[in-house]
C-alpha cells in the first residue's frame, strides 16, 4: 500500500485539506477553491452537480456569477494539478451535470484508512492492532478543518471512532489494560454515549484490579442515558455489568497461558536442521540481545516473525544460525531450516512446495504421505505444528510470498527470515519485526581477523590490521576472506595483503577465494543481476558519482529522469541494501559496493559530463544567493538542480556537497573534461571565500588552472587566478603573488573586457600592497574605480573603492579612506551584496575608531555584527566583534570589550583565520591591564 503513493498526487481530508505532489505540499489558495476541491475529493470518481457545488459554497445566497466563479475555480485547480503532476495521476473532468475528480482511490487518505480498518477484521490481535494504529495515524486533526461551510464528513468521524474502538479491543486482547485506562477515561468523557467505549473501560478497569471503578463507570453511564435520553443501557453492557458483579472468570485477561509443549511420541519427530554454527562467532551483542528480547516477550498464542535483513556478506545467516543454536532449548518441538536460494549465484530460488515437502518429512510424515497439491501441503504442515513450538529459519528469502506459506501456526513458534531485501509487507500483513544488520565495529572487525587467522595479528601488526579492517569496510565476508588468505599463504604478511588491497582496481579481485566460489564481488554481482533494468541503471549512476554520498538530484541529472523517480529508485536500492540512506535524501555506498558499481558503469565520460553540468548549474544558483557575481559565467539550465532560497540555505547546501565537489573536480580532470573542471573551480570559490576553506581549495585550484591551460582557455585561467587571489586575500597570504596578479592582468588586457580589467587591477593593487608598495597600488585602485564607473560595473566600483579605502588607511589618510569606504558601503547595499555591505560596515567602523569617532564606530560595528549574524557570515561577524571590542576598550568598557574579543577569537579560530593571532594579542593585553 505504501508504495502506491511514492509518485504523483495524494489528497488528504483527514485533517486540514492537503494535496501532496511527490511528497511536497501544494498551496491551494482561496477558501472557495478549497471548498470545491474538498467536495470533489470526498466524492472522488463520482460526478458532483454544479448546483450542489453552488449550494455548498454559498448556502442560500449565491452571487449572480456563482457558476462563472466555479468555472474559474475549476480552471485554476486543473492548472495547479497539471503543473504539479504532468503525468496526470489525478484530473478534474467535466461530466454533465457537473465535475468529477478522476483519481486512483489509493491516493485518497480516507480510502486508505477505510481499507486498513477493513483488512484488520478477522486478523490476530497483534496484526489487528498494528493495522488499526496505521489507519488512525492517517488522521492529522479534525476532518477538513480549514474548509469553509459544513462539509458532510460525519461518516469519516464515525470511521475514526470505530477504528479507535477496534484498536482498543485488540489491545485489550493483548493484555494492555493498564496502559489503556487513562486513554479510555478521556475518550468516555469526550464521547459519553458510546456504549462500546464504556464497555472497554469497564474491562480495562476490572482487569487492572479496579473492580469498584468498573462498576462506577457503568452506574454513571446508566444515569446519563436514563436522564438525558430516557433509555436503558444496551443488553451487551448490562451483561458485562452482571459479569463484573459476580467476578465472572470469563472477564479475566484473555492472554493465554503458555501451552505445554507436545512431548515426542512415536510418529512425532523432533527435527534439528540448523547448520553448524560458525566457530568463533564475533560481536553482534546488541543484535543477539534484540532477538533474545523478542523471543522472551513473544505472544505464546501466535507465531513471532523476525526479518533479519542487510547487505551481501554482512552476516545475516551466521547471526540467525548462531542465535538459533543458543536458544534451541526454547523450542522443544524442533528446529527447521531452509535455504531459499533467493540470491544464490548459481541456483534458482526454492519453491515453497519443495520446502514444505522437506519440512513435512523432517517432522515425521512419510515421503509417500506428502500431498502433491500445494494447498494440501500447507494444510498438513499447519496441522502437524498446530500445538508445537518450533524455530523455523528461512534463509536468503527473495520476497514475502517466499515466506508466507512456510509460517507455522501459533503455540509460541518463532520464525527467523534472512534476506538482502527489506520484506516490509511482512510487517503489515504478518506483524513481523525488522532487524537490519550494519557492518562490524572496528573492535569487532579486528577480533574477527584474529579469530579467523588463529593468532593475535592485531597485537603483532596493529597498524596494518587497522588498515586491513578499513580496506575491507568492516564487512564480515571481506574480513573472513582476507584473514583466510593469510592462513592459506603463511608467507604473506598483513602489510603485503594491505598493499594489494590498497589498489582499488585489484581490491575486489583480492577479496575472492576462487576455489571455494566465495568472494565479495560474486556476492555483489548476484544482487546487481537481480535488479530490474531501471534500478540497475540507477545503481550504475550511483557508482559514477565520485563523492562520498549520492543525492536524488545527481541521479536525476545522470539518468535523465525526474526528481521523484530518482528518489524512489534510490529508496528501492536502499531496500535492496545496495546503499544506505544515512539522512533524508542522502544515500551512501559501502566502499566495496562503490568499487563494484564503478566496475559496471557504462559510458563513464558521458555520465560525468552530465553530472558536472548538473553541479555547475547548482553551484551557480547557490553562489548567487551567497553574494552577487560579475564574472560573466552563467549556468541557468538543469531542472534537476536543487534551488535553495536563501543565503543560509545556499551555504548549507555547499557545506553538505563540498566533499562531493572536491571529488568531482578530481574525476573531471582525470576524464579530460577540462572546461567544466575550471568552471566548477571558479564557481565554488565564492563558498570558499565565505567559509575560509583554503587548504582543500588550493588543491582543486591547481586542477582548475591546469585544465584551463591544457585547453588554452585564457579567460578560464584568468578567472581561476583571480579566485586564487581572492582566497589568499581573505586568508592574509597575498605576499609573493605579484607575478600571478600581473599574468592575470595581462590576460584581461588581451581579452579587453572592462569588468575583467577592473577585477585584475584590484588583484594587482592588492598584491603590490602585500609587498609594501602601497603608493604604487593606489594608482591601480583609482584606475579600477574610474574604469568600473565608465562601464557601469557597480559591484566592481564598490570593490575598488573598498580596496582604495584600505590603501588610503594604510597611508594614514583616514578621512579620505572613510569617504571611499562610505561610498562603497552604499553601493553594496543598493546592489544587494549584503555580505560585502557587512564587510564595508565593519571597515568603516574601524576607520571611525581610528579617527576618534567612537560613538559612530560602535554604532557601525554593532550593525555590522547584526548583519553578519543574520546572514550566516562568520568571518564578517568575527571581524565586526574585533572592531567592536577595540572600540569598547577605548571607551573604558573593559568587561564588554573582553566579551566581544573572546567571541571574535572563537570564531576566527573556528575558521582557521590568521587574524586570530591579532585578536588573541589584543585580548591578552586587555586581560592583563591593571
From TrEMBL:
A molecular function (GO) held by this record is: ADP binding
Cite the InterPro entries for this sequence.
AfsR-DnrI-RedD_regulator (IPR051677), BTAD (IPR005158), OmpR/PhoB-type_DNA-bd (IPR001867), P-loop_NTPase (IPR027417), Sig_transdc_resp-reg_C-effctor (IPR016032), TPR-like_helical_dom_sf (IPR011990), TPR_rpt (IPR019734), WH-like_DNA-bd_sf (IPR036388)
Coiled-coil boundaries: none
DNA-binding region per Swiss-Prot/TrEMBL record: 1-103
Keyword list, A-Z: DNA-binding, Transcription, Transcription regulation
Q: Which GO terms describe its biological process?
A: phosphorelay signal transduction system; regulation of DNA-templated transcription
Q: Where is the OmpR/PhoB-type domain?
A: 1-103
The Swiss-Prot or TrEMBL record describes its family as follows: Belongs to the AfsR/DnrI/RedD regulatory family.
PANTHER family from the UniProt entry:
TRANSCRIPTIONAL REGULATOR REDD, TRANSCRIPTIONAL REGULATOR REDD-RELATED
Q: What is this protein called?
A: DNA-binding SARP family transcriptional activator
Amino acid at each position: 500500500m505504501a508504495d502506491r503513493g511514492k509518485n504523483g498526487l495524494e489528497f488528504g481530508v483527514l485533517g486540514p485539506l492537503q494535496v501532496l505532489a511527490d511528497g511536497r505540499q501544494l498551496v491551494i489558495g482561496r477558501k472557495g477553491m478549497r471548498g470545491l476541491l474538498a467536495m470533489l475529493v470526498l466524492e472522488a470518481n463520482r460526478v458532483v452537480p454544479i448546483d450542489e457545488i453552488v449550494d455548498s459554497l454559498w448556502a442560500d445566497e449565491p452571487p449572480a456569477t456563482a457558476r462563472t466563479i466555479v468555472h474559474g475555480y475549476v480552471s485554476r485547480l486543473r492548472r495547479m494539478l497539471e503543473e504539479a503532476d504532468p503525468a496526470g495521476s489525478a484530473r478534474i473532468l467535466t461530466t454533465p451535470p457537473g465535475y468529477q475528480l478522476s483519481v486512483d482511490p489509493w491516493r485518497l487518505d480516507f480510502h486508505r484508512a477505510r481499507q486498513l480498518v477493513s483488512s484488520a477484521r478477522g486478523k490476530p490481535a497483534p496484526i489487528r492492532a498494528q493495522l488499526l494504529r496505521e489507519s488512525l495515524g492517517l488522521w492529522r486533526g479534525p476532518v477538513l478543518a480549514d474548509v469553509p461551510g459544513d462539509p458532510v464528513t460525519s461518516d469519516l468521524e464515525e470511521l475514526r471512532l470505530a477504528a479507535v474502538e477496534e484498536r482498543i479491543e485488540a489491545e485489550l486482547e493483548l493484555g494492555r489494560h493498564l496502559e489503556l485506562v487513562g486513554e479510555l477515561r478521556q475518550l468516555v468523557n469526550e464521547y459519553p454515549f458510546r456504549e462500546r467505549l464504556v464497555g472497554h473501560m469497564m474491562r480495562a478497569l476490572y482487569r487492572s484490579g479496579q473492580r469498584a471503578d468498573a462498576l462506577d463507570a457503568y452506574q454513571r453511564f446508566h444515569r446519563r442515558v436514563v436522564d438525558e435520553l430516557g433509555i436503558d443501557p444496551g443488553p451487551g453492557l448490562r451483561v458485562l455489568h452482571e459479569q463484573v458483579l459476580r467476578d465472572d472468570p470469563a472477564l479475566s485477561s484473555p492472554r493465554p497461558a503458555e501451552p505445554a509443549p507436545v512431548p515426542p511420541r512415536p510418529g512425532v519427530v523432533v527435527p534439528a536442521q540448523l547448520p553448524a554454527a560458525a566457530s568463533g562467532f564475533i560481536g553482534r551483542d546488541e543484535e543477539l540481545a534484540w532477538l533474545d528480547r523478542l523471543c522472551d516477550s513473544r505472544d505464546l498464542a501466535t507465531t513471532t516473525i523476525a526479518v533479519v535483513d542487510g547487505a551481501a556478506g554482512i552476516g545475516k545467516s551466521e547471526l540467525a544460525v548462531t542465535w538459533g543454536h543458543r536458544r534451541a532449548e526454547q523450542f522443544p518441538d524442533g528446529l527447521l531450516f531452509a535455504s531459499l536460494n533467493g540470491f544464490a549465484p548459481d541456483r534458482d530460488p526454492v519453491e515453497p512446495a519443495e520446502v514444505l515437502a522437506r519440512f513435512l518429512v523432517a517432522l515425521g510424515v512419510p515421503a509417500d504421505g506428502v500431498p502433491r497439491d500445494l494447498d494440501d501441503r500447507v494444510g498438513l504442515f499447519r496441522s502437524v505444528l498446530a500445538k508445537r513450538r518450533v524455530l523455523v529459519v528461512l534463509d536468503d528469502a527473495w520476497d514475502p510470498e517466499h515466506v508466507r506459506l512456510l509460517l507455522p501456526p501459533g503455540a509460541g513458534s518463532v520464525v527467523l527470515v534472512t534476506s538482502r531485501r527489506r520484506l516490509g509487507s511482512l510487517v503489515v500483513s504478518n506483524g513481523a519485526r525488522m532487524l537490519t544488520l550494519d557492518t562490524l565495529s572496528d573492535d569487532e572487525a579486528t577480533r574477527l581477523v584474529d579469530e579467523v587467522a588463529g593468532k593475535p595479528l592485531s597485537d603483532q601488526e596493529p597498524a596494518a590490521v587497522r588498515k586491513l579492517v578499513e580496506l575491507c569496510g568492516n564487512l564480515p565476508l571481506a574480513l573472513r576472506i582476507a584473514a583466510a588468505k593469510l592462513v592459506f599463504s603463511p608467507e604473506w604478511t598483513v602489510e603485503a595483503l594491505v598493499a594489494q588491497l590498497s589498489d582499488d582496481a585489484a581490491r575486489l579481485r583480492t577479496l575472492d577465494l576462487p576455489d571455494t566460489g566465495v568472494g565479495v564481488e560474486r556476492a555483489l554481482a548476484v544482487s546487481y543481476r537481480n535488479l530490474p533494468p531501471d534500478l540497475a541503471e540507477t545503481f550504475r549512476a550511483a557508482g559514477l558519482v565520485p563523492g562520498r554520498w549520492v543525492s536524488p538530484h545527481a541521479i536525476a541529472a545522470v539518468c535523465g529522469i525526474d526528481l521523484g523517480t530518482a528518489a524512489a529508485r534510490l529508496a528501492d536500492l536502499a531496500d535492496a541494501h545496495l546503499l544506505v540512506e544515512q539522512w533524508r535524501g542522502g544515500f551512501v555506498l559501502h566502499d566495496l559496493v562503490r568499487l563494484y558499481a564503478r566496475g559496471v558503469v557504462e559510458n563513464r565520460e558521458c555520465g560525468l559530463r552530465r553530472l558536472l553540468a548538473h553541479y555547475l548549474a547548482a553551484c551557480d544558483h547557490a553562489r548567487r544567493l551567497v553574494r552577487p557575481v560579475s564574472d560573466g559565467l552563467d549556468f541557468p539550465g538543469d531542472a534537476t538542480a536543487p534551488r535553495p532560497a536563501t543565503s543560509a540555505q545556499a551555504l548549507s547546501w555547499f557545506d553538505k556537497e563540498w566533499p562531493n565537489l572536491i571529488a568531482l573536480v578530481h574525476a573531471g580532470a582525470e576524464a579530460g573534461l577540462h572546461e567544466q573542471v575550471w568552471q566548477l573551480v571558479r564557481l565554488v570559490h565564492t563558498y570558499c571565500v565565505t567559509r575560509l576553506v583554503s587548504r582543500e581549495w588550493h588543491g582543486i585550484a591547481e586542477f582548475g588552472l591546469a585544465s584551463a591551460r591544457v585547453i588554452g582557455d585564457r579567460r578560464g585561467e584568468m578567472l581561476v587566478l583571480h579566485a586564487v587571489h581572492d582566497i589568499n586575500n581573505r586568508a592574509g597570504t597575498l605576499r609573493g603573488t605579484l607575478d600571478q596578479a600581473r599574468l592575470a592582468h595581462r590576460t584581461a588586457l588581451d581579452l579587453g573586457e572592462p569588468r575583467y580589467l577592473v577585477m585584475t587591477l584590484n588583484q594587482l593593487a592588492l598584491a603590490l600592497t602585500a609587498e609594501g608598495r602601497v603608493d604604487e597600488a593606489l594608482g591601480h585602485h583609482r584606475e579600477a574605480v574610474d574604469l568600473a564607473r565608465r562601464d557601469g560595473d557597480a559591484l566592481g566600483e564598490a570593490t575598488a573603492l573598498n580596496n582604495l579605502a584600505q590603501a588610503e588607511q594604510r597611508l594614514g589618510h583616514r578621512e579620505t579612506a572613510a569617504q571611499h569606504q562610505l561610498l562603497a558601503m552604499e553601493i553594496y547595499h543598493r546592489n544587494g551584496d549584503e555580505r560585502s555591505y557587512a564587510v564595508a560596515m565593519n571597515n568603516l567602523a574601524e576607520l571611525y575608531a581610528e579617527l576618534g569617532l567612537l560613538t559612530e564606530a560602535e554604532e557601525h560595528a554593532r550593525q555590522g555584527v547584526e548583519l553578519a549574524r543574520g546572514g550566516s557570515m562568520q568571518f564578517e561577524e568575527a571581524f565586526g566583534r574585533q572592531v567592536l571590542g577595540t572600540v569598547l576598550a577605548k571607551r573604558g568598557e573593559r568587561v564588554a570589550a573582553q566579551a566581544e574579543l573572546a567571541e571574535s577569537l572563537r570564531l576566527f579560530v573556528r575558521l582557521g583565520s590568521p587574524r586570530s593571532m591579532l585578536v588573541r594579542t589584543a585580548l591578552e593585553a586587555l586581560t592583563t591591564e591593571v
